[in-house]
Amino acid sequence: MNKETSVLNIKHTAFKKALLEAAINKHQSVIDDFQNSIREMIGSENEANQAEPDLSQQGFNSEQIHRANAVGDQVSFANREMEILQNMLPTIEDINDTVKLGSVVVTDKDIFFVSTSIERMKVNGYSVFGLSTESPIYQVMKGKKQGESFSFKVTQYRIKEIF
Known about the structure:
3 helices, alpha+beta
């Protein structure tokens, strides 16, 4: 096997670029959804404020503020994760031989993309799980090399390839 193709029979750099693009698009969609939720909350609050104020609205307004703050926190987190993904762009073509940020880790059980916490995504016909460097499973596999094994919870994984 040469450095350009993998056990998945794909070109490493093309696959990593496609993964990062899919991750950025998926993450942007999450950010857009959060921002739309905030706009809807602001819109419903403005409508409520235009009506005559009464005491029952005070509880509603307090609940709206609490929800808006929670969504705002989620937007901030999502923006930080988007920044991580954007910062990966210049180095995405690097081929890694150990598990670290930017690695694609092919195991006997799953395929992981060490980036940010992203729902499972389908790229070039392969199902890939986006993995944050803060996640417990990453902490167990961090620094491992091809051929090594690791255990997470009750599952044993063998690393078939890293790129």
